[in-house]
Design a protein that fits this description.
Number of helices: 17
Strand order of the largest sheet: 3-2-1-4-5-6-7
Distance between the termini: 55 Å
Largest sheet: 7 strands, parallel
Structural class: alpha/beta
Helix content: 40-55%
CATH topology of the largest domain: Rossmann fold
Order of helices and strands: HEHEHEHEHEHHHEHEEHEHEHEHEHEHHH
Number of strands: 13
Mean pLDDT: 89
Shape: globular
CATH architecture of the largest domain: 3-Layer(aba) Sandwich
Low-confidence stretches: none
Length: 490
């Protein structure tokens, strides 16, 4: 019996001792890895250099999250010449020079290769949702922890900032690196709305019909979500500072932080809103007059964007006001501009085309799939109305772009578009909100029947608000005031 106990102890303790020894070796050899990085960058002075690590496994994706990453790094390069920006990425199919070129082409952000180093990660597939068809949240979070281990094994920075939403990596970074941690959160990994939908057994793109139709499965999933939220809260409280992209995200993150405030002192008390930078310079040049009677949707063909609701809204509009279907000056058209990322998105587009036929609105709907940026800008310069039907859009850069382009927005009355974007400016509206196809139809009709003077004034207000509130300058100011620099070692 005693021998068995000793075997169990050895099997338990030995791996722990191995990890402790390995971590000590990683820390002690980190200085030499830093020197190697500086040599590849053409620099030699190590004593005055600080390394800021950005965890962003999809840094070459070209989306709104990537604009945040590269805008922050570009600001560091201008204002903090002694900081080396280290990006941990899984984009192993692109060289550093190619990524820098794409950032310039896609976002018009110029990066210096002299203070930018990329650490390429080989295990990114562990954070892909396709890798975890079941228990996706848990699987991706565990996968991110391994990815963080790989990252720290290659280079430990002075400060770690997650810019993609992988809070579970904080434990690994703190354990291996023992360094301060910060984050820019676009969307909470789990939130109280998700729990509420499971509890009420509401079918959703994150709550399948199989789950929602079963009380037993719904109960089990609710328990799983609650346990996951507890550990997500533990992860967030490991951070030294947190930035978020909107009021909606802040409200959820603060509520999650509050779960452990009494049990675990320390960590950030609340998150700070830093609105993402929106490049509205080109769009703000478009004329506000002479717009076509086009309702424009600009969004990837992802399930949460709910393009079907846009088609149903158009159908309701035509039912109530059939004059909009007739050829001539009153005719209205819906144009859906969006990216199709994969086979799932392509199938979704075909399903939407079938719905168009089913509703009998073929002559009034146009799909523009994977359009180049120039074509998207062309539609933004011509359209009269913009429509966004996503529920709980955490921010809504597409809505900001619509407003900057002079397109009057009709957005879902939730989250970012409701709380931060389509809000009164000098006491006057900058757009409209709706929740159902019928209320969307009525809001669309209201815009279509505005007088020319009212329409022009509304477009101007929407543009002025969007351009001044969500600019690159405002983002950089907010990022600087977050206090990130105070966590760098002196």
């Amino acid at each position: 019996m005693g021998a068995i106990i000793w075997v169990v102890i050895l099997l338990t303790v030995s791996p722990c001792l191995f990890l402790v020894v390995h971590i000590r070796k990683l820390r002690s050899s980190n200085q030499s890895r830093r020197i190697t990085v500086l040599k590849t960058l053409g620099q030699s002075e190590l004593h005055d250099k600080k390394f800021v690590g950005f965890f962003h496994p999809y840094c070459n994706a070209g989306g709104g999250g990537e604009r945040v990453l590269w805008t922050a790094i570009a600001a560091l390069q201008r204002n903090e010449p002694n900081v080396i920006s280290v990006v941990y990425t899984g984009d192993t199919d692109a060289a550093k020079e190619e990524i820098i070129d794409k950032v310039k082409t896609r976002f018009d952000i110029a990066l210096s290769p002299k203070t930018l180093h990329l650490v390429f990660l080989l295990s990114r597939d562990l954070v892909e949702d396709s890798t975890w068809p079941q228990f996706t949240l848990l699987g991706q979070s565990l996968g991110s922890m391994y990815l963080a281990w790989e990252a720290m094994s290659k280079l430990i920075p002075d400060l770690y900032i997650d810019t993609m939403g992988y809070a579970f990596t904080f434990h690994i970074v703190k354990w291996v690196g023992g360094i301060p941690i910060g984050a820019y959160v676009h969307y909470p990994t789990i939130n109280t709305d998700m729990l509420a939908r499971v509890k009420s057994r509401t079918k959703w793109h994150t709550n399948s019909d199989t789950i929602s139709s079963s009380s037993v499965l719904s109960g089990a999933k609710l328990m799983y979500y609650r346990l996951f939220m507890y550990y997500y809260a533990l992860s967030l409280r490991t951070a030294s500072f947190l930035m978020v992209n909107s009021s909606w995200t802040k409200n959820h993150i603060d509520a999650i932080l509050l779960l452990l405030k009494l049990l675990q002192p320390g960590g950030p008390g609340e998150a700070r809103i830093v609105y993402p930078p929106c490049d509205t310079r080109e769009m703000a040049k478009f004329s506000l007059e002479g717009r076509e009677r086009v309702i424009l949707s600009v969004a990837q063909f992802r399930p949460e964007k709910d393009h079907a609701a846009q088609l149903y809204s158009l159908h309701e509009l035509f039912k109530a006001y059939p004059e909009y279907t007739k050829a001539g000056k009153s005719q209205v058209k819906l144009v859906l501009v969006g990216g199709s990322r994969n086979a799932g998105d392509a199938a979704r587009v075909e399903g939407l085309r079938a719905l168009v036929k089913e509703l009998g609105i073929e002559q009034s709907v146009e799909f523009v799939v994977n359009a180049p940026y120039s074509l998207m800008l062309d539609w933004l310069s011509r359209a009269s109305i913009g429509i966004s039907t996503m529920v709980d859009e955490h921010f809504g850069i597409n809505v900001v772009e619509l407003m900057a382009a002079g397109v009057i927005p009709v957005a879902h009355a939730s989250a970012g578009p409701l709380l931060d974007i389509v809000v009164p400016f000098h006491g006057q509206p900058t757009g409209f909100h709706a929740t159902t196809p019928k209320t969307f139809a009525e809001a669309l009709h209201k815009v279509l029947t505005l007088s020319l003077a009212e329409e022009l004034a509304l477009r101007q207000r929407a543009r002025t608000w969007a351009v001044q509130r969500f600019s690159q300058e405002e983002f950089e100011k907010g990022w600087s005031e977050s206090g990130w620099k105070t966590w760098l070692p002196s």
